[in-house]
Amino acid sequence: MTTIPISTHDSPPFLLDLIYRMKIKDVMTRNLITARKENSLRDIKLLMKEKAITGVPITEPETRRILGVVSMDDIIRALDGGYIDAPAERHMSRNLIVLDEDMPLQFAISYLDKFRYGRFPVLNKERELVGIITSRDIIVALLVEVNKEVEKLEQKIVNPVPVAGEDIHLEFAVRKLDFENAGKASTEIKKVLKTRNLNPQIVRRIAVASYELEMNQVVHAEGGTISFALQGDRVVITARDLGPGIEDVNKALQEGFSTANEWVRSLGFGAGMGLPNVRRVSDEFSIQSKLGEGTTVKSVIFAAAEL
Amino acid sequence: MTFDDIIRALSCTVVVRGTAFETAGIKSLVSSDLMSDVLTTTEEDFIISTSLNSEQVVRTADIVGALGIVLVNGKYPQDAMRRLAEEHGITLLSTPMDAYRVCFTLGCAMESRGRASP
Asked: If you ran DSSP here, which 8-state letter would residue A104 be given?
């Protein structure tokens, strides 16, 4: 069985902090499916099938104490040995490893690695069964926390608060065929420009250039980045992608030349107007492309503030 | 023209009332199903008419500063398009007329206004 690849020495500090900060009780499943010691293994087998689970704790309902666990292995052995109708208490695993609900999550991870069990019962201070923890619970909880952290980091990258009068530099990642988010970078750039007192027609030219370049990456490239820099009264938009590169740059600059497929066209793009349009709105325009490597397009627009 | 004039002339359903709904003075119309074409326009104070009902129409309208969008042929926007129009404060209308009718009707209306107040 593979181990969970979070070790105590070479994982990022954020993850280590997380697995010590989070308690087992924050992660475990509280919705318990249990059986009594008198229940037959056959009944438990049915319960497993019905609830799609692989282990059932056997409890004393009055005291909420755990007496044992019947796992899929126990059921297979019972079928082999012909005692599937015997009561659970005669064949359940009694040699249990349990966890305490206040232990850090790290304990559950190391126990899952150390022992070959798929689940551990979790007890409270009164030794009552309060939950069960599986590697799935841990993966889900870690993913939720890591997602939150990544979102925070992404916001820090995407939204530096522009200071009036100062230079601005923004960078956006663009994903291949992500039409849902296509245009977000340009919307952000336009928003930032609106905070400056610029000629609306120049703002529009900048927005058109960045939007065309962004759509080009969504449609044609294996993803890339759009970077935006306002240096004094000079706006530089640089679109760098990861390939595939343009075979004939001169052709790509002709109006109406397009390699876009039908469904891209059905979305209203791919008419071969993108690059010519970027060149039209730019004061300076340059393009470099190498097949198999990628394309870099640079558009410069002079944006003197209106007096 | 105001949005009210356009709604009356084209028998529109109002899907989203944008920020300039009451105040906009619409002077021109850009009609295309190609957003690439719309992006090349240099018109001012205009609306877009199109039969394309995707989010990219709203993004394009925002980029070129269009006052609103008229979906033709009775097209109705998906939720995502409607939400994006709300977010950007862009007026979104739907008309049962086809693109030709829309252009003809608004063209005549704008022309006669132009003559009335040169």
From this structure: B
